[in-house]
Amino acid sequence: xxxxxxxxxxxxxxxxxxxxxxxxxxxxHAIFEWLANNLDANVILVNNISGQKDSITLLNGxxxxxxxxxxxxxxxxxxxxxEENKTYKSYIFDETILILRDQYNLFASRIKSNxxxxxxxxxxxxxxxxxxxxxxxxxxxxxxxxIDDAYLKALKNKFNLLDIKK
Length: 166
What we know:
single chain, seven-stranded mixed sheet
């Protein structure tokens, strides 16, 4: 992994641009690294955490090589009420992917966070599943990704991954 600046990526052409939405502590960074290590491409992550400056990282290598470029834009603690993020309007996303972790482990992991906002947002998300929110976004479930080989194979096919390495 290598830290980058916007100047390093501003002129790159991206074959795919994925927007990932997750709550902090949902396991998304493990999933990003797994995807990056199984793609034959430069995978660049722009990590946006509410209220903080973006960080940009080349996930699979220490320099940008002459091959396909894929951009992951991770938006943590996304506001489901608006279902919109004003940042990154210059990008057209190929797909928006929602990463979920089971609520018990997620709550335990976030116990020291601002619980009122977090629980309100998560409850709103669960409610909105019945209104089609889960149908609107492709969803990766962290717990299934962690233990289910059939689920990994389905993700491999979805993202045209090389080999499944964990």
